[in-house]
Design brief:
This protein is α+β, with helices and mostly antiparallel strands and about 100 residues long. The chain has one domain: Alpha-Beta Plaits, CATH 3.30.70. It contains three helices and four strands. InterPro entries: Dimeric_a/b-barrel, YCII.
Amino acid sequence: MPWYIKTERFRAPAQDMGQHLSAHRHWVRQQQQQGRVVVSGYLVDGHGQPGGGGLMVLEAENHGAALAFIQQDPMILSGCVEWRLQGWIPVMGDLCLLPAQNLP
């Protein structure tokens, strides 16, 4: 199944988005528990400090299915991020996805 990457940039400081981030994490866990292959995390700067945005890696049948899926993400529904969805074609290496229990 094809891979897709959603990148996002926060429109407000991360500390102001606790409610939306919590809803996002809950939604991702639900999706994983239902068998969807999806991993989500936040981006950090050169000092390891969060706040710039996030990244999601997912499998979907096609771009339309990936788009329909991520448009359900609470971070997108809240309007607190600018985002972009792109297909991704791995060329070298293996991708090992974290199981749901490893999410913070």
